[in-house]
ABC-2 type transport system ATP-binding protein
Amino acid sequence: MTPAISIRNLCKTYDSGFQALRNVDLDIRRGEIFALLGPNGAGKTTLIGIVCGIVRPTAGTVLADGHDVVRDYRAARSKIGLVPQELATETFETVWAALRFSRGLFGKPPDPAHLERVLRDLSLWDKRDTRISQLSGGMKRRVLIAKALAHEPSILFLDEPTAGVDVELRRDMWDMVRRLREHGVTIILTTHYIEEAEQMADRIGIINRGELLLVEETATLMRQLGKKQLLLTLQSPLAEVPERLADLPLELTEGGEQLVFTFDSQRERTGIASLLKRLQDEGIAFRDLHSRESSLEEIFVDLVRAGR
């Protein structure tokens, strides 16, 4: 199946000499939720800007639904909806007028029924005749999403969509995203809430300093790169890890009251049995132990550090 978005050898160098993107290759599948993660300045917004036709690439090609975003800009852009991070909205027009205008920009015929569905999905129907300037920040964020969906795009970009919004809007938004995917819409999101990416995304891409470090299925990423830890709560605090245990991946936390042992759960021998025996030989007793898996946030931080 042809990818929804196909990116090859994409580079962007600004007039200042800053290289925002370096030879990015990426295919985004039709109907998937793809999360693009990276620290501030990593190149996420530049990448989105190029795909959406806002920023011109220095080199490389981008196809959106088979259309080149530079040579066939109008056709490519008609396939894309963009929810920007900034809350820049036309302040004096009504919500309904803003949606009609957004739909008309793409040459779409009037379809009040579609616009009504969008507004109802975003709990905006009761605000359709309200001027945008009179809405709260959360409601303005909903309007941005509604405008992006007005022309029925097959690809939707969400750039930090839940930044600064309340829990209710965040929940409504992700419910809507799931419904859109069920109808075949491809969704690309950037977010600082890494737990959202872990819960929502089919695949995750991690970018840093303009380079795509990794693209992987979310479940596979967690399984391959996620570490497990054994947390042992000691009966008596330690001042430091004993020298005879220095060869083990042990860390002392909680004021010396907890030992943390990091291991690879994919290996046949995790080292736990050996650890417990050596603790016994050292006379170190514990009153509780439990394991935990590393979070996507910890994986992300490790990857970014390794890529520096």
In short: DSSP finds ten helices and 14 strands in the chain.
